[in-house]
């Protein structure tokens, strides 16, 4: 029973193993030696252990102040199948065995729960402290309350002709509705996910454990619905790194004024973590705290699941908020000392460029020679240390997927001097040798979240993030096949003047770019705009222009001459971009076209294929869809903490973590066909 809610049954595999441990104690109170001899039973996919002697459960991988009570259910209430309290249950069980031991039960386990007992007299009765129990037969047992109001109600209803059992009795069942079997066993974990929290953990200790539990529960529902036929079983483990850190002790609390103390304490417990991380004094403590906790959890998991590494188990990380930045720095080994060294080097270069006296030149040369000598000594020293002691890796595992949720990582990277490049690869910010795939998830109104793709290719600031599918979408298009769309088509530099080279026009992906449809925009309006756009450029061309669409994707740039009235008046010298319908693709991929309306002609040009290519053009930014009746101002307040229970995100995570298994299954099905 967790959080003082209703009792929940263990699965059959766990229940039978707990029962065996319980029976090994023997009758009566266990002696001290016997209690120590009974090992705790590992339950709930290995996340918890049960102490049979003290009848309590506790988590294996994280700390929890409150123990979870465990109960051996014997007698259960009809309908709800909740167990009676253990004290009453034991008394009823003892009386039942004394009275009916050796009598024949019904053969069918599924008893008629609504079978009436009208007219049957009780053959046995037991008085309890606040209740009494009547046996009408060996398997017809009823519980009655002895409270005064219950007695009065019972008397009235019996005078009206109702039986005692049907008027106020609660039927009891000996044994649970479902029989426990060893086949009811959880699958072996083949993929573990470390869930890293951000700021605010000090303010609400244990929150990451609850958030991870929510994510685990939603993932289980999605797993059962969509991935039940796959071998991959994903387990989520919370990484709580903040509570063990001492940092400044209570210095910040001591300098905090008393007025509006509640608000100040909240800021000290949440936003202060960002200041700690940007402080050169405490940054390393935060990094080491998270790094050690990740390694501790991985080592503990492998010690309890030795076959995990043998069978090639994979590890992913889901980080939230500031946790994304710290996790990134651990994986890449980034340190602010690097920036300091770059600054010194830049200052040296600036000094060399300006005029200086002979004495200054001589001193600078000496300084340069001394620094060179110092570097050589440091390298020799590091070489000696490396030959005697092999430095362990920062993390003891390779990260398969790094999921960022509500992440400010892009801002930190921008402030560190990261600027867009030309490679279009994830390696520009996170090498694939460190992490196979980086995925940035955010809600469109999350004020803390920022995009990563424009830091890789600048023109991606005008390409919308990939929309995450709703979990109940029928036959969703695979994410790698989704066509990108412009956020602002008028700003996209796909239309160039005659003097510009076509090769300078960037193309964001290997699929045709579609104009993004804003929420609430009707299909009729879009259709009307498309017709008007087609009419304006197709004047005088008829079917000749659009017949080009149906041809092979090897079409070369063409120039089609039209009459003077084919051009738009007024601003006709400016190039105008017009959206095109999707084109048929060839074996070489999709063909991208751009219509350019010039003075007297329309150019059909093929754009160069430059994409955000991780492996095969993978996208990085993924955006949750806004609700249809969602207030953007309200969601701006709640969206940063709304990721944990989202079924859409659970499906998204499992889609990428089970991707290889899904592809293998599809391939085997195809081979069979």
From TrEMBL:
Residues 395-659 form the DDHD domain. Residues 489-512, 552-582 are annotated as: Disordered. Pfam families: DDHD. One of its GO terms (cellular component) is cytoplasm. Residues 562-575 have a biased composition (Basic and acidic residues). One of its GO terms (molecular function) is metal ion binding. InterPro entries: DDHD_dom, PA-PLA1. Residues 493-512 have a biased composition (Low complexity). PANTHER family: PA-PL1 PHOSPHOLIPASE FAMILY, PHOSPHOLIPASE DDHD1. Belongs to the PA-PLA1 family. This is DDHD domain containing 1. It comes from Athene cunicularia (Burrowing owl).
């Amino acid at each position: 029973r967790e959080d003082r809610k209703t009792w929940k049954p263990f699965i059959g595999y766990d229940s039978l193993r707990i029962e065996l441990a319980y029976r090994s104690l023997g009758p009566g109170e266990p002696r001290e030696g016997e209690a120590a001899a009974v090992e705790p039973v590992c339950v709930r996919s290995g996340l918890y252990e049960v102490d049979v002697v003290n009848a309590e459960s506790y988590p294996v991988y994280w700390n929890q102040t409150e123990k979870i009570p465990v109960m051996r259910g014997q007698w259960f209430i009809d309908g709800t199948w909740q167990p009676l309290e253990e004290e009453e249950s034991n008394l009823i069980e003892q009386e039942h065995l004394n009275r009916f031991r050796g009598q024949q039960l019904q053969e069918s386990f599924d008893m008629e729960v609504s079978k009436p007992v009208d007219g049957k007299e009780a053959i046995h009765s037991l008085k309890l402290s606040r209740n009494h129990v009547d046996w009408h037969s060996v398997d017809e047992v009823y519980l009655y309350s002895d409270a005064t109001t219950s007695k009065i109600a019972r008397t009235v209803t019996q005078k009206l002709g109702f039986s005692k059992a049907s008027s106020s009795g609660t039927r009891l069942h000996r044994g649970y509705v479902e029989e426990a079997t060893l086949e009811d066993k959880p699958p072996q974990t083949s993929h573990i996910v470390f869930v890293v929290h951000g700021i605010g953990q000090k303010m609400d200790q244990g929150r990451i454990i609850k958030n991870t539990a929510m994510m685990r529960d939603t993932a289980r529902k999605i797993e059962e619905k969509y991935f039940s036929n796959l071998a991959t079983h994903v387990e989520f483990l919370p990484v709580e790194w903040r509570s063990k850190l001492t940092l400044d002790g209570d210095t910040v609390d001591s300098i905090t004024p008393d007025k509006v103390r509640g608000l100040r304490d909240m800021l000290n417990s949440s936003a202060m973590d960002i200041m700690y991380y940007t402080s050169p004094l405490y940054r390393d403590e935060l990094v080491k705290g998270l790094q050690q906790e990740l390694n501790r959890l991985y080592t503990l998991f492998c010690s309890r699941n030795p076959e995990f590494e043998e069978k090639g188990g994979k590890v992913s990380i889901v980080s939230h908020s500031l946790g994304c930045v710290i996790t990134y720095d651990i994986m890449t080994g980034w340190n602010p000392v690097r920036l300091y060294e770059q600054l010194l080097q830049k200052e040296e270069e600036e000094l060399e460029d300006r005029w200086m006296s002979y004495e200054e030149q001589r001193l600078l040369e000496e300084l340069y020679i001394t620094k060179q000598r110092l570097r050589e000594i440091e390298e020799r020293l590091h070489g000696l240390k490396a030959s005697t002691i092999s430095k362990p890796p920062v993390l003891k595992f390779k990260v398969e997927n790094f999921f960022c949720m509500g992440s400010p990582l892009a801002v930190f990277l921008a402030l560190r001097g990261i600027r867009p490049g030309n490679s279009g690869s994830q390696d520009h910010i996170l090498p694939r040798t460190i992490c196979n795939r980086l995925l940035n998830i955010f809600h469109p109104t999350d004020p803390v979240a920022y995009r990563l793709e424009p830091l890789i290719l600048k023109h991606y600031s005008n390409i919308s993030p990939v929309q995450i599918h709703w979990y109940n979408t029928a036959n969703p298009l695979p994410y790698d096949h989704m066509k990108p769309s412009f956020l602002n088509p008028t700003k996209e530099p796909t239309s160039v003047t005659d003097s510009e080279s076509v090769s300078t026009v960037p193309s964001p992906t290997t699929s045709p770019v579609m104009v993004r449809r804003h929420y609430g925009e009707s299909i009729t309006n879009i259709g009307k705009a498309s017709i008007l756009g087609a009419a304006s450029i197709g004047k005088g061309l008829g079917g000749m222009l659009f017949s080009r669409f149906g041809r092979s994707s090897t079409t070369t740039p063409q120039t089609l001459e039209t009459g003077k009235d084919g051009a738009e008046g007024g601003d006709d010298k400016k190039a105008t971009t017009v959206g095109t319908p999707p084109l048929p693709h060839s074996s070489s991929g999709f063909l991208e076209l751009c219509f350019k309306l010039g003075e007297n002609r329309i150019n059909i040009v093929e754009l160069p294929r430059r994409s955000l290519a991780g492996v095969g053009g993978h996208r990085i930014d993924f955006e949750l869809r806004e609700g249809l009746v969602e207030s953007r101002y309200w969601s701006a307040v709640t969206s940063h903490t709304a990721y944990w229970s989202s079924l859409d995100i659970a499906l998204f995570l499992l889609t990428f973590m089970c991707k290889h298994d899904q592809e293998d299954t599809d391939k085997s099905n195809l081979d069979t066909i």
